[in-house]
Amino acid sequence: MTYNRSLVALLTHYGAAPKACKPYRAKTKGKVERPFRYIRQDFFLARNFRNLQDLNGQFSAWRATVANPRVHATTGRVVDDAFALEQPALIALPALPYDAVLSVERRVSKDGMISVDGNLYSVPDTARRRTLEVQNHTRDIRIFEDGVEIARHPVLEGKNQRRVDPSHRKAPPKRQVVRSERPSGLHRSLDFYDAVGRRLSTGQVSR
């Protein structure tokens, strides 16, 4: 059995372990999926909100006045009462919240860039692999090669933006100026050329 690494990391943070449901067993799988369907249909359906803070406030009010005071259709128990009985057996939440990170693979272009959410970010010229791991955090983009962070960029706003870190590019090699040297036999004094000029003017040129 192979589990998604991100899911395992989330469960480990909260002290839980994954358990796969048997294929085609609605009795088992439905217990997991049904609460999400209830929230989606009873809370989110046709709801408007201004921002995340407003949405969280509406959700807290909905839980306190609608979801938790209701009698559960399957157990026949009030949700608030059932939770009060089970709460002493629950483990405490971690002191720090889980840092949810979207990790994907991206291919490096010929000009040393990777694309994330419609924007381009530079990769160091020293990178050896053509496919790198990218972590999309809230405020920055982090690029990894073989598990080692090799680049970090602030998240660009909008689309079709491009960011190149100057330290990612190697400086072009300095061009060496090669001075041409004439063979020693071609170096002649000015007197020689003066004599040749006089002979040419008098027609005294040997053939």
Helix/strand layout:
Elements: H1 5-13, H2 26-44, H3 52-67, H4 79-86, E1 102-107, E2 113-116, E3 119-122, E4 131-136, E5 140-145, E6 148-154, E7 162-163, H5 190-202
Compressed to H and E, one letter per element, the order equals HHHHEEEEEEEH
Percent strand: 15-25%
Largest sheet at a glance?
Answer: 4 strands, antiparallel
Number of helices: 5
Strand order in the largest sheet = 1-4-5-6
Tell me what you see in this structure:
- With 207 residues, this protein is α+β, with helices and mostly antiparallel strands.
- The protein folds into two domains: 5-89, no CATH class; 102-168, no CATH class.
- The protein is built from five helices and seven strands.
- A four-stranded antiparallel beta sheet has the order 1-4-5-6, with no helix packed on it. The protein has a three-stranded mixed beta sheet with strand order 2-3-7, with no helix packed on it.
- A hairpin with a 2-residue loop joins strand 2 and strand 3.
- The radius of gyration is 37 Å and the shape is rod-shaped.
- The model has no long low-confidence stretch (mean pLDDT 86).
Features:
rod-shaped, three-stranded mixed sheet, 207 residues, 2 domains, alpha+beta, four-stranded antiparallel sheet
Compact summary:
With 207 residues, the protein is an alpha+beta fold. Helix content is 31%, strand content 17%. It contains five helices and seven strands, in the order ααααβββββββα.
